[in-house]
Automatic annotation (TrEMBL):
A family per Pfam: Beta-lactamase
Keywords: Signal
Keyword Signal: yes
Protein name stated in the entry: CubicO group peptidase (Beta-lactamase class C family)
Keyword ATP-binding attributed: no
The Beta-lactamase-related domain, residue ranges: 57-380
Residues annotated as signal peptide: 1-34
Alphabetized InterPro entries for the sequence: Beta-lactam-related, Beta-lactam/transpept-like, Diverse_Enzym_Activities, TAT_signal
Length: 401
């Protein structure tokens, strides 16, 4: 494989620009940790310690609207590292630069990477219908939905979380195998929302189906495969699909907080009966990682260290244009991540959001920046994550232009 040095010759030619983070909001009180220093090269003053972006983060944290960790790197050097708020409010444990956070849907990137690795090895074909790999689907789905459709959210599959069967049984599954088997039982009985390939609709069911394909094709459990071939391969030593008991007992893992209907801050992990807290994450979301580990993943993926250059290019090139683009560029869904061009510069990444969690990985291919947001207080009003994304993108793109 090629080394991890990025260049325009090896960079991916991708389409589009998108709002990568799932709309969400964050909050929590606390003070910032010290930044580790700025990178050399074209680093805009606004992103340096003490700059406009740093000051905005501090103000949001001071107002109780932000809790978590932010990491910005340029050319592998840390430009800004900040941590705010509490990982565990009941025990007064602060968030740190190495605190472990739930990823929500950013974890879909790991599932997509596993699929592309297996495709590169000739063990699966992206154009094949899922019936070639999995049993139990009706022919209308088994013969019509392809791996390509699953990766691009054009399968017509819905989201298993809306199923009464899932909600009734999710608390009973106490292993990764039981979790994935139970979810797939729900998915196999669910009708399609539309003819595959005719529309786009974000689908957690589609990514759980991809995880089942990884398991079937590789001969390993989904979790073991990703641990070895994605996390270990990228040098992500603190990343895993931590179980609910581990989340409750490990002081290094941040608890997710949201605001209740009564206006109180609530630890959703400690109230599974009300907010839902599955035993373990799925191929659709909630692996757990640190900001440095997620930054390593972004660089390993873009640097062809997880998949060879041809299949990395295939994975990260936009496939399905989004109907509505952000200002300054077009937007497209790739095989897992969103792919973007804004003002002639390429951005790939993914965001995630759930009750108590809001996350982002942004990789600026041309200018060699990685942006990581890991927040553990998220409700519908705080903090303004899209504004924070727009701030970093504008400053990075302007400096590189």
């Amino acid at each position: 494989m090629e080394n991890s040095r990025w260049s325009r010759r090896s960079a991916l030619r991708v389409l589009g620009v998108t709002s990568i983070a799932a709309g969400g909001a964050f909050a929590s009180a606390g003070s910032a940790a010290a930044a580790t220093g700025a990178a050399t090269g074209r680093v805009p003053a606004g992103l340096r310690p003490g700059g406009a972006f740093d000051k905005k983060l501090g103000k949001l944290a001071e107002e109780g609207k932000l809790s978590g960790t932010v990491l910005l790197t340029h050319q592998k050097r840390t430009v800004l590292s900040r941590s705010y708020g509490k990982a565990n409010e009941r025990r007064s444990l602060p968030n740190r630069s190495d605190t472990i956070f739930a990823l929500a849907s950013v974890a879909k990137l790991f599932t997509a990477t596993a699929i592309m690795q297996l495709a590169e090895q000739g063990k699966l074909d992206l154009g094949q219908p899922i019936g070639a790999y999995l049993d139990g689907f009706p022919s209308a789905i088994a013969d019509a939905v392809t791996v390509h459709h699953l990766l691009t959210h054009t399968s017509g599959m819905a989201n298993f979380q809306t199923s009464e069967e899932f909600r009734a049984n999710a608390g009973k599954w106490t292993s990764g195998a039981a979790m994935l088997d139970g979810i797939m039982g729900v998915i196999r009985k669910s009708a399609l929302l539309f003819t595959p390939g005719t529309k786009s609709s974000y689908s957690n069911s589609g990514f759980c189906t991809l995880g089942a394909i990884v398991q079937e094709v590789s001969g390993q459990s989904f979790y073991d495969y990703v641990r070895k071939h994605v996390f270990d391969a990228a040098g992500m030593s603190r990343t895993d699909y931590y179980t609910r008991p581990q989340q409750l007992s490990d002081d290094d893992i941040a608890h997710p907080y949201t605001t209740s209907a009564a206006g109180q801050r609530v630890d959703t992990l400690e109230h599974p009966e009300q907010y839902g807290s599955p035993y373990i994450g799925t191929p659709a979301g909630d692996a757990f990682t640190t900001a440095p580990d997620l930054e390593r993943f972004g660089r390993a993926l873009a640097g062809n260290r997880l998949i060879g250059p041809a299949y990395t290019n295939l994975m990260l090139t936009g496939k399905v244009p989004h109907a509505k683009a952000n200002a300054g560029g077009a937007s497209a869904q790739a095989y897992g991540p969103t792919s973007a061009i804004r003002n002639g510069q390429q951005i790939i990444g993914h965001g995630g959001g759930s009750l108590g969690t809001s996350t982002l990985l942004d990789v600026h291919i041309d200018s060699d920046w990685v942006v990581v947001f890991l927040f553990n207080y998220a409700d519908r009003t705080n903090p303004p994550i899209q504004e924070l994304i727009d701030d970093t993108r504008k400053l990075i793109i302007t400096a590189a232009g």
